[in-house]
Amino acid sequence: MLNTDEPRSDDLTWLRSQVRGPVYTPGDPELPAEIPTFNTAVAHHPTVVVGATGAEDVAAAVRWAAAHRLPVAVQATGHGVVLPVDDAMLITTHRMRQITVDPQQQTAHIEAGVRWREVIEAAAGYGLAPLSGSSSSVGAVGYTLGGGIGLLGREYGFAADHVLSVDLVTADGRLRHVTAETDPELFWALRGGKGNFGIATAMQVRLFPVAALYAGGLFFAASSAADVLHAYRGWAPTLPENASSSVALMRMPPVEQLPEPLRGKFVMHLRFSYHGPAAEGEDLLAPMRSAGAVVLEHVGVLPYEATDVVHQDPTDPMPVWERGGLLHSFEADTVDALLKVAGPELDVPLIMVDIRLLGGALSRPASPPNAVSGREGAYSVYVIAPSPPPLKEIVPVVGGAVLDALEPWLTGTSLLNFLGAAATPQQVAAAWTPDVYTRLRAVKNSVDPGNLFRFGHAIGI
Description:
Order of helices and strands: HEHEHEEEEHHHEEHEEHEEHEHEHEEHHH
Strand content: 15-25%
Largest sheet: 7 strands, antiparallel
Strand order of the largest sheet: 13-10-12-11-15-16-14
Number of strands: 16
Radius of gyration: 22 Å
Distance between the termini: 37 Å
Shape: globular
Structural class: alpha+beta
């Protein structure tokens, strides 16, 4: 049993005596391997790092940091990092990997370091699936508490809508089991407010009876960009709620790992998934097959474990600038405005502009209600640009120009997980409607009055 006495010294002796995991400080040779980010444009310089092995480690680390007035950040897989963690404690949770699936209740208990692929594999044996996102390498907990949209979102809603409980270490170093019954206001805020209220060490979520999808993607030639986008804006709103889709303007790198039709090319990537009979999915997709010149396709029945192939998100870390917003509509003028700033004839450093259909269950309130942002959007828009040092100054201008061009159709709010570089207090506040943000600030003040957790997309107090 670990000693639970409060920290009494200014050095790390007490902390190391309380945690099972490693404790690192600047200069330790193991430190760089402990804290890598997926977006390599962001680098951390923490004062101390605790490699947590369980909730007790997290609680002890938070107590030590609070006693030393050191702010605290948390990182699981390194995805979703938007700002460097400097002059602070960083708690890493990638060692916390336990998953328990209850097939009778159709739930999963997931620790903080678990990636979606591990949950998908654990659930698949029972014919179940979680509400994971487009990439299974992303951490399940952070994704979910930020909202979480995936291939099943239009049918079942945000991932956060189906959280049943959260185990949370708050700023007082106490581990709480938070549910709609034990603490309804904190439970409301956690599901959509992400890491602003403490460190989630585990959560329990619903699973769904989904074994396979009719899904995949079509790549269209650059010459078809306008035709595909205009066809998409008419086709996407006609889809039933058990179908999801997105379209992306992509500038592919000239690397040998890519198929020749894509290598070094501008392409339009249409993504599609349908939870239902393959023949029905084929009929739904048929109008888009004739929208332009298809250079490559991969559509068919996929086991849920293979759905990473739909979006084909990158799996290797890279330096990027990214930012998103929400569209209330996608009209002919919207398409024209988008092509003027991101179309194939332009020589601009953009990796992708992604337009993703929302609506369906993503537009309806959760039960019990939560703080997830984005229900008012008809589409999300997400811009990613490469950000190595030579481009660091120019890419925010180029990427920002895309969102500026779409401003007449933007709601002003955002999906929290897609905020990206929008990290100023005003930009973060704008992710939610004003009434929701005011309520979130009240919860923040009640559970973290000292603003111990103030990294990432932080709520002001």
